Give the backbone structure.
Amino acid sequence: MPRAPMTKAGAERLRKELERLKSVDRPHVIAAIAEARAHGDLSENAEYHAAREQQSFIEGRIHRIEAALANAQIIDTAALPADGKVVFGAVVDLEDSESGEVVTYQIVGDVEADIKRSLIAVSSPIARALIGKREGDSFEFDAPGGRRSFDIVAVRCGD
């Protein structure tokens, strides 16, 4: 099975989240379950059921992070060539051809993508359209809301 690309910074964020889940969140929910059990009848104990649901979420997230890190090919984006070509890990400034709005994205692995932090998955339509292009190029891609057109203003190495 091919290893999934992940930035060094993304791997570090996942390791920190994993540490927090294991050292803070998991013990907290275990204590909440023990306290809820002390209240008696578990069949009608909302606190117990809520704590068990939270425990299930935490354990699932721990499992997903461990699997993602085990299957990751960590790429140091700072070591990638800075020749103006869009590659995995690149930070790209784009200008919307219609509105003139400038947006900045970093192309990262699927597991670490977070649009709120301007981190787009390498498998996303926009990233697939960007890979291999150069600073100054224009490109189009099919977005969920329709066809979009952008100009690549700048390309630089990620952190």
Q: What stands out?
A: The domain at 77-156 is CATH 3.10.50.30 (Chitinase A; domain 3). The first helix runs from residue 8 to 38. The CA atoms of residues 106 and 119 lie 5 Å apart. Strands lie at 4-7, 72-75, 91-96, 102-108, 119-121, 138-143, 146-156.
